[in-house]
Amino acid sequence: MAYECNGATVEADEEGYIIDISAWNPELAVLIAESENIEMGDDAWEVVNFLRSYYEEYQIAPAVRVLTKAIKKKLGADKGNSKYLYELFPYGPAKQACKIAGLPKPTGCI
Amino acid sequence: MEEFEEAGPEIVKRFMYVNRRAPYGTIYAHECLEVILIAAAFDQDVSVVFLDDGVYELKKGQDTSEIGMKNFSKTYGALDDYDVEKVYVEKESLEARGLTADDLVIPVEIVAADKLGDIMAQQDIVLGS
Amino acid sequence: MNTMLHLINKSPFEKNSLDSCLRIAQSGSSVLLLEDGVYAAVANAEHAAKVAARVGDLSVYVLGPDVAARGLSDTPLIADITVVDYEGFVDLVAEHDANQSWL
User: Fold this and answer.
1) Is A76 helix (H, G, I), strand (E, B) or coil?
2) Distance CA B11, CA C97 (A)
């Protein structure tokens, strides 16, 4: 599949993860989020940006358990918990947020 | 895997992953790292060993921009987040390569060959690459 | 006599490619260390003495991008080993009559 963003075509795999992570931009993130029925409010952006910086530092998209723990460490327990993250990303915070963040499917996600 | 998160306690086995290959010449090192991260989701008792050319996986300062491969040395820094806390490096392998703990991307426990043999003998499952 | 370029892309700790090459290579020929072969160029590692003993008699080169990838850019290499980039690699291949890959 592919996304059409600002007149450009961005290729994605059959699950909607973009192929070339350097093709990501915030407009594309909003577009991917729309296709997942997610509205990109500040809280959703915070998680997406967190994932992008995690990827930048460690070169992987973390599994959900790891993401939750890492967010807890960085942003506190009121955000670093499953309930909060699943409210933002109902179909799985790691899977959906990674897709929106333009990252590959999380490592440790089978 | 997300639905497994709340699964109850199961029998915990001791897994050891033995890394013996240099990072980019072959795919072994990267594949082994992926296996470790995937297996870490199963809450087992995991330890990771670097010996022989495997110690080169942890060498600081890797820059793969000119060889068109991902610099996965950065990913070892995430092992702690994945609850992989036991990381051993064989002393003899480091010394043969003129390396010290300061040359490595993450803090590790440096152990001599005989001690490493003891640790290995305590494992339920040992996987090599 | 043909001029030879010897290519070593295996770690000296793992394979005997380096040893065999150093045993066979004639004076005046060239050796390029690349991929995992670059570990043979590190000055304070186990194999350094036997490589250093042939530098001069052989022209020894190491591929820079592979050195950088392995985190060895700031690591002292054996004296008088020349670092080359991909263009230098191509030049070496072109300058020699034949090459042997010690796989």
Assistant:
1) coil
2) 63
What's the pLDDT score for residue B1?
45
Give the ipTM of the model, two decimals please: 0.91
Range of the domain at B88: 13-62+71-128
- Give the neighbours of chain A: at least 3 Cβ pairs within 8 Å: B
DSSP, residue by residue, A21-35? GGG--HHHHHHHHHH
Question: Taking CB atoms and an 8 Å limit, are B77 and A107 in contact across chains?
Answer: no
C-alpha R_g of chain A: 13
User: What CATH number does residue C46 fall under?
Assistant: 3.40.1260.10
Q: Which of A30, A60, A66, A109 is catalytic?
A: A109
CATH tag for A2-100 (out of 1.10.10.370, 3.30.450.40, 1.20.1290.10, 1.20.58.1370) = 1.10.10.370
Name the residue facing C71 among B25, B59, B96 (closest C-beta).
Answer: B59
Which stretches does DSSP call E strand in B1-129?
A: 14-19, 45-50, 86-90, 109-111, 125-128
Distance between CA atoms of C82 and C62, rounded to whole angstroms?
6
Q: With an 8 Å Cβ cutoff, are B34 and A107 in contact?
A: yes
Question: Residue C69 and residue B66: Cβ atoms within 8 Å?
Answer: yes
Amino acid at B37: L
Assess whether A98 carries a catalytic annotation.
no
Q: Does B62 touch chain A (CB under 8 A)?
A: no
pLDDT over 90 for what percent of chain B? 83
Is residue B49 over pLDDT 90? yes
- pLDDT exceeds 60 at position B8: no
| Consecutive H or E run containing C6 | strand C4-8
Split into its structural domains, chain B has a count of 1
Residue C69 main-chain phi, psi, to 5 deg: -60, -35
Which of the pair, B33 or B42, is modelled with greater confidence?
B33
Residue B1 lies in a domain: no
What pLDDT score does A94 carry?
Answer: 85
Q: What does the domain layout of chain A look like in residue ranges?
A: 2-100
